[in-house]
UniProtKB/TrEMBL annotation:
GO molecular function ontology, one term from the record: lyase activity
Alphabetically ordered keywords of this record: Lyase, Signal
InterPro entries for this protein: Pectate_lyase
Identification of the protein by name: Pectate lyase
Name of encoding gene: pelA
Segments traversing the membrane: none
Amino acid sequence: MFNSINSSKLLASAFCVFSFLCSHAQSNSEISTKPFTDGTNHWYFIKDKTNIINPIPNQPKYAETDYTKIADNILYFQRDNGGWPKNYDMKAILTPQQIDSVVKTKYIEHTTFDNETTYTHIHYLAQVYTLTKDPKYKDGCLKGINFVIKAQYSNGGWPQYFPLEKGYSRHITFNDGAYMGIINLLKKIVNNDPDYAFIDAKTRKKVANAYQKGLDCILKMQIKDNGKLTAWCQQHDEITLEPAWARKFEPPSICNAESVDVVLFLMDIENPNEKIINAVQSAVKWFQDSKIYNTRVESFAAEEMESKYKKIKNDVRVVHDTTAPPIWTRYYELKTHRPLFSDRDSEFLYSLAEVSRERRTGYAWYTDKPEKALKKYLAWQKKWVPNDDVLKK
């Protein structure tokens, strides 16, 4: 009896120590909220009359170690259809009134992938479920994954908003990372990421099918211009897959910034087939050929002005600089391949100086992102096409 009692006490003590250590370890764990940065910045710094809630002065925030509290916020914002609205801070410590206002909108189907929305929420919930095993996070994650699958077009692409709405949000959208965010999420599941170990076989099969269709659609949308494959547009027509207008200053064109993430994704595919290899080779050659030299873009202080959207205290200009590294414009005109700009009147412009100050300062017209693909290309090329370096042609 004595030994039995002592053994029970020892087991109980050991369990308490184990529980304490697990609890302590969990309290010091954190999950990055960086993927929510775009939406967070919009909530705090850009006026939007359509917001469900607006931040209160000095809105308090959870620490990254408070991942269950952040995940609870994510569940508050998740709509009944499985998707999320955009442009809120998931780290905000919401007031009871704010929570009530958010929860009351669950029936609304204005849900999106724009501004790194939905796919980032799904991945966060998967990580929290892996740490906690609380079924509410698993349920929210699976509901989100099913939303992604339902939102996919039969041709493999995804719209910016689902259910479908009027206007350019119906287009297949690379802008702001929407398409690549979705397909990289699916890739994690296909590649058996441990954060998704809980996913059942039936859902995995649906995900694998959606992933393959999404990959095939990427290859179909690559722009063939003047007889040569180049890169991709920010958005493509959901039926024809051709480059399409989005906002009034976002013309159909070859879009270097958005195309980089597409190329990096394709480069990461193991044992690429001939179509994938050709897509990468063509896009890398395009990046090389579309470099702009001796050009630097600088921001400088300027007289404050109030636009419809925010106060502007700076201006931007292009400077000739022989020491500047290569740079690219965000847009290149189809057929002519001239650097392209635009404004809220949708007029084609050919220099940044012609763009209004509000759009000139409020949009990234130049980019250095293609350099990432060019740097990665050498190792990729040696591995998969050792006898065909397009950068030497």
